[in-house]
Amino acid sequence: xxxxxxxxxxxxxxxxxxxxxxxxxxxxxxxxxxxxxxxxxxxxxxxxxxxxxxxxxxxxxxxxxxxxxxxxxxxxxxxxxxxxxxxxxxxxxxxxxxxxxxxxxxxxxxxxxxxxxxxxxxxxxxxxxxxxxxxxxx
Length: 138
Fold this sequence. Notes:
The chain is of the alpha+beta class.
């Protein structure tokens, strides 16, 4: 399942709800669902604030399920990240003027089982997150 939306802060809530509804077929716990929703919120917010620097652009969200594992990809075609390793450091922010905490990637890592960030300056960023829902395969 995939969808696209404008890079507006108000669409962060829309994205997290759509992903949560899609994943409901896995019968997640409230905690598992909250973890995924938080990670999606952080990824979408990064696209709005950093990827498009609060300008216009499109954010694409792709969600898939393989067994009990949910994969969520959040994609922008914004400014990209020159140093992904540095950007993933806790407390690092490229927008201190916006009073950002610099914890977005840290939260994604904490709430999901896997996190991969691919980016190229001038071409955008792809954030791939995975989480296994429940303890057993069905």
